[in-house]
């Protein structure tokens, strides 16, 4: 054999980056209603008024993050042009499994210059972190927009969301203004907040609906044009990705994943064009990856409850009652060194969410003699997929 790479001069991709997860498109297609709603929600800033707090929700992959980035860049650019507008400082924080302290600390660091020391990871209280942030904001002045993406992952979102909207009224800041934009895949997140917080965060709500096949097709067409060499991707492959994703999640992420994975398969098979067959073959690979991502989207305790049901399933002990699941959950939480939730109600809430998201199925069981009834749960996804995903997530934590 010759050198391993010497024959590798054929690629189907012109710019594969364009299909990657982090690529920020410079044009947003098919989200005119959402863009209009966003513009109305943000426009106060242009006139130097207090910004509204905004709650953005919709399923995964429907453009919440992409549209938010796009809108805030546009807002910053516009305020720079206008005399009467305050300076706008946008800071984006992804709440992935973070704590309130971590979030505030990160915001402080994002406002500090490169020559300043970062705020310490541990050792100070959350209150001091807030105070430091407020001081810095007043130093800089202007309007601050804090984007808390995937806010449902925050361990105590209530605390954070209570603080910011009241910072001015409580006299913590006088020279600056603040607005919070919370983004969540899970509409029920709002139910987990206290009523006071709900009212202030939910001043403006923007809902992102799933895409249909035509919308996905126009998004994919645009990407494929940049991503593939001329003639390297068939129109019908694109159409198939759009149709499959529309039937399933209605998310552009899934459609893009199918297209990228199909492209990889075509390339590794030495074919000159991505066809329907490659996309069909890509489905299974993408599906497995998606279960992992969906699990990653759950709060840590939601994941632990799911893992507990998967364990029971392997021991053929399902369907199980919430009490039985709780017993296993306590061992599992302990094993990973998390403080377990103590009330049965909170375990039942997680079971309810997991059921709604299709991880579990639930059956009502009537105990005829005693006249009571209760629910039993079993796993609706592959137990191995759950274990694999959990292993990966725990590995990333280290
Ligand atoms: N309307 C759109 N136009 C162009 N690209 C989009 C659009 N909606 C989503 N995307 C792309 O699809 C992927 C998922 O979108 P994202 O904003 O991350 O979804 P969400 O935050 O709702 O989960 C990203 O790569 C994004 O660039
Ligand atoms: Mg997002």
UniProtKB/TrEMBL annotation:
- Return the protein name: ORC1-type DNA replication protein
Gene Ontology molecular function terms on file: ATP binding
Locate the Cdc6 C-terminal domain: which residues?
A: 306-390
Q: Per the database record, which ranges form the AAA+ ATPase domain?
A: 50-229
Keyword rRNA-binding (UniProt):
no
Q: Which domain of life is it from?
A: Archaea
- Record keywords: ATP-binding, Cell cycle, Cell division, DNA replication, Nucleotide-binding
**HAMAP family, sorted:** ORC1_type_DNA_replic_protein
Q: What does this protein do?
A: Involved in regulation of DNA replication.
Q: Does the keyword Nucleotidyltransferase apply?
A: no
Recorded hits in NCBIfam families, A to Z, give: orc1/cdc6 family replication initiation protein (TIGR02928)
- Which organism is the protein's source? Halogeometricum borinquense
């Amino acid at each position: 054999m010759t050198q391993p790479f010497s024959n590798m001069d054929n690629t189907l991709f012109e710019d594969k980056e364009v299909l990657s997860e982090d690529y920020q498109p410079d044009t947003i297609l098919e989200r005119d209603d959402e863009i209009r709603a966003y513009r109305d929600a943000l426009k106060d800033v242009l006139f130097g008024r207090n910004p509204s707090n905004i709650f953005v929700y919709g399923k995964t992959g429907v453009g919440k993050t992409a549209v938010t980035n796009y809108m805030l860049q546009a807002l910053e650019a516009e305020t720079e042009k206008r005399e009467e507008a305050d300076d706008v400082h946008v800071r984006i924080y992804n709440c992935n499994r973070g704590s309130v302290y971590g979030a505030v600390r990160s915001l402080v660091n994002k406002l500090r210059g490169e020559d300043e020391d970062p705020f310490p990871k541990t050792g100070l209280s959350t209150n001091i972190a807030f105070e430091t942030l407020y001081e810095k904001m007043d130093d800089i002045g202007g309007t601050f927009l804090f984007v808390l993406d995937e806010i449902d992952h925050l361990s105590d979102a209530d605390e954070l969301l209570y603080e910011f909207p009241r910072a001015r009224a409580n006299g913590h800041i006088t020279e600056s203004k603040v607005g919070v934009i919370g983004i969540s895949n899970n509409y029920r997140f709002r139910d987990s907040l206290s009523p006071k917080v709900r009212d202030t965060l939910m001043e403006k709500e923007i809902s992102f609906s799933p895409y249909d096949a035509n919308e996905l097709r126009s998004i994919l067409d645009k990407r494929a044009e940049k991503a593939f060499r001329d003639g390297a991707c068939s129109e019908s492959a694109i159409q198939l990705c759009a149709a499959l994703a529309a039937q399933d999640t209605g998310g552009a992420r899934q459609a893009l994943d199918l297209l990228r994975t199909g492209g990889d398969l075509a390339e590794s098979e030495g074919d000159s064009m991505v066809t329907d067959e490659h996309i069909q073959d890509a489905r299974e690979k993408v599906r497995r990856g998606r279960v992992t991502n969906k699990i990653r989207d759950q709060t840590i305790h939601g994941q632990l409850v799911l893992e507990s049901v998967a364990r029971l399933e392997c021991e053929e002990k399902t369907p199980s009652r919430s009490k039985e699941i709780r017993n296993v959950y306590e061992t599992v939480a302990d094993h990973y060194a998390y403080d377990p939730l103590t009330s049965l109600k909170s375990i039942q809430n997680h079971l309810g969410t997991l059921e709604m998201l299709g991880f579990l199925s639930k059956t009502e069981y009537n105990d005829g003699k005693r006249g009571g009834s209760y629910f039993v749960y079993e796993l609706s996804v592959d137990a191995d997929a759950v274990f694999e995903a959990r292993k990966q997530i725990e590995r990333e934590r280290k």
